[in-house]
Structure formats: structure tokens, C-alpha cells
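Example (one chain per record):
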Amino acid sequence: MATQPRTSPAFISFLTILSSVVLAKYQYENVSPFAQHNIGMQISLFASFIYFMMVVVYEILDSDGIVKVEEDGRYLLILGHVRFLSGTAAATLLILILIPYFGWFFLVMWTMFLVKIACYWDKTFYNFDMFKNKKNANDREGGQEEQRPQV
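Predicted structure:
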């Protein structure tokens, strides 16, 4: 049975520390981080908001401590992926603001995770073997209403 882990308090603390370090970096320069890195800061705040909302939704839906994906449905797995992507996007953008070269490396890694997870989400939409198996099961049960002769 596949399970999804609960949220890590260490990761939430890591996001808090990164945010504090960004604010401390720009404290003595009399420049706001929003003035120099407007788009990065806005996306980071939005990703943090999405991450914390997914944590709250996950906590509401997960009453026994471990989310059982097979029993609760695929939507909980998707919530876990959105939580992962938004949390890592927030951390990656804050690192990009603090240490640009290292942050670009993390941003490339995050993009690879995004592509991998997006391909995984799309698997059910292009998995036509599922329909072939259903058709073969109907053929064995005599589920075809009309059989046409081959020409």
C-alpha cells in the first residue's frame, strides 16, 4: 500500500529561516527585496501560500496520520504533489535570491521534478492499454452487442 508522508516541521522551519535571511540580507542596504527581485519574491510568497494551504487541506483530510492513496483516491496523491512542488518552488526561489548561481542550479532541478510529476499526472490520460483490457474483458463475457464480419 503506497502512503504519502505528512508535512515536515523541519521544512516549514527551513522556509522561515530562508525568509528571515532574505530580509536580513537587504536590511542594511536600504533596498527592499521586493524592489530588486519583485517577480521572485511574489512567486515565492504565492508558492508558500499554496504550500501552507495544501498542508492544511492534507491535515483535514488525513485523520489517522497516514494517507492511504488507494483508499482515499488519486486526488490526495495530487495534493501531495502540489504540496511538494509549491514548497520546493518557494525554497528554490528564496535560495535564488540569496545565492544566485546555486539558486539557478536548484531551479533547473525543480523544473526537472515538475516535468517528471507532470508526466506522471498525464499517464492516466494516455494509457490506452486500460481500454484494451476492458474491451477484452467484455469480449470474454459476451458483452459485444453486434459482431460485424471482417471484409
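Caption: The mean pLDDT is 76.
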